[in-house]
């Protein structure tokens, strides 16, 4: 099923991430964490759908997407960044394997936070986020998507990692074995993993080695 929709507004989130608010097509529903194939409904772009994740609440009257723009590359994200309100878009029905399965730790790299934004907003809205943790890796503090919101949501259970030495509130380094051993006390919980493919591969191997249950690992398959 392909739904037609319209861009209502776009707004800056970070230096290279934009929030797109689009009309919610009639009959469109999704579960937090699922993605859709989104395309610009214009000649030359219609066939070039790309996967993105609604970051709004499932019951909201509009849909929000939080999208990292690759400005140096003539792809769909650069074209999306140039759109003005009123532009026509299409979205597919929702798909994907990332869904909330129970309490655990969200481990994200960069724009991989988007499915977890949807899940975290949903859990927070229902007062059920307590006891969950966040490990969020980025290159620099300026790259962190929705930092204030995530700090408020997770409190002391939010861990922000960056590649550089960034001062208070940030840890320097990668999501490696040493970091996971330091930050995770309970291995009998769910681990939600989303980031670039090399990030996912490395984190999942390490989680398994440290004792995470294979069926408690949730990632895009
Ligand atoms: C299920 C799922 C959900 C997703 N949800 C989101 C989301 O909510 N938000 C989000 O920001 N992303 C999301 N992504 C990633 C998103 O789909 C890609 O970033 C997007 O498809 C890139 O489209 P593009 O046409 O701009 O780049 P493409 O032309 O498709 O290029 C793909 C990749 O090329 C790389 N690239 C960058 N610059 C260059 C260059 N100069 N030359 C060549 N390659 C370059 C980038 O790493 C880019 O990812 C999701 C992916 C999946 C699988």
Descriptive notes:
The protein is of the alpha/beta class. It folds into two domains: 2-92, Translation factors (Elongation Factor Tu (Ef-tu), domain 3), CATH 2.40.30; 104-218, Nucleotide-binding domain of ferredoxin-NADP reductase (FNR) module (Rossmann fold), CATH 3.40.50. The chain is built from five helices and twelve strands. It has a six-stranded antiparallel β-sheet with strand order 4-3-6-1-2-5. Strands 10-9-8-7-11-12 form a six-stranded parallel β-sheet. It is globular. The chain starts with a strand and ends with a strand. The mean pLDDT is 97.
Mean pLDDT: 97
Largest sheet: 6 strands, antiparallel
Strand content: 25-35%
> Which outline best applies?
globular
Give me the strand/helix succession. Answer: EEEEEHEEHEHEEHEHE
How is the largest sheet built, in terms of strand order?
Answer: 4-3-6-1-2-5
CATH H-level homologous superfamily name of the largest domain: Nucleotide-binding domain of ferredoxin-NADP reductase (FNR) module
